[in-house]
Structure formats: structure tokens, C-alpha cells
Specification:
Blueprint: E1 3-8, E2 12-17, E3 25-32, E4 39-43, E5 53-54, E6 56-57, E7 62-69, E8 72-80, E9 83-85, E10 93-95, E11 101-107
Antiparallel strand pairs: 1-2, 3-7, 4-5, 4-8, 6-7, 8-9, 8-11, 10-11
Length: 118
């Protein structure tokens, strides 16, 4: 994750943002699961590492994390309390080799010029 807690001065907390890798876009991932105790997002962007991108639960019951990804298409799944789960909000899915489905997210190239119709 790109966010880390640090201390500045005496007793003052500050959020420190590390510089994201060149050419990446920040992607906010949000999942609502009121009963979950731990939620992790994993996918081909992380080599399917099961604990690399843990999410944090906000008081409103929404789990959030920010990813910095290069433009492209990524397959992912959620690990909720150690169990593989589908993202119920995903608009696109593809079959995976284990008999389930992976969600698909598309990260646009925000730096590429956009053609406009006249």
C-alpha cells in the first residue's frame, strides 16, 4: 500500500504518502462487507499474493485500499476472512482455471491524449 503511518514532532501523527511508481494510476478499491473481519484484494497485479494488499474497514462498514497500477486490464479476487470471494460490484468477470470467476478491472491510460469528435 502507499499509505504509512509516521510520527512528526512530539505526539503528532501524520500520514506519509510515498511517491507512486512512474506511470501508474491510483485506483481506489471499495468493498462493503459488514460482517468481515479481514479483507484482502489480490490478483495478477500482485502475483496473486494472498496478503499483499490488505484493506482497512471504515466506520461506515466499507473496506478500502488504494492501489497504484500501470494502465491495463487486471484480474483479481477478494480474500474475506481467509476465503476466496467474488467482488459483487464487479461489472466484468472471466472464468478462472479453478472453476470460479475472477473480476476484471481496467485501469485507463490517463496520460494518453483523448480523441474528440467534432
Amino acid at each position: 500500500m502507499t499509505l504509512a503511518q509516521g510520527r512528526v514532532g512530539i505526539g503528532m501523527e501524520a500520514e506519509i504518502r510515498q511517491k507512486p511508481p512512474e506511470g501508474t494510476n491510483e485506483v481506489l478499491v471499495e468493498i462493503r462487507d459488514l460482517s468481515a473481519r479481514k479483507v484482502v484484494i489480490t490478483g495478477d497485479f500482485s502475483g496473486w499474493a494472498p496478503d499483499r494488499f490488505p484493506m482497512r474497514k471504515d466506520p461506515d462498514g466499507v473496506w478500502r485500499t488504494r492501489l497504484h497500477l500501470l494502465p491495463g486490464e487486471y484480474q483479481y479476487r477478494l480474500r474475506v476472512d481467509g476465503e476466496w470471494k467474488d467482488d459483487p460490484q464487479a461489472s466484468r468477470r472471466v472464468s478462472n482455471p479453478y472453476g470460479g470467476v475472477n473480476a476484471v478491472m481496467v485501469v485507463p491510460d490517463l496520460k494518453r491524449p483523448v480523441a474528440t469528435a467534432k
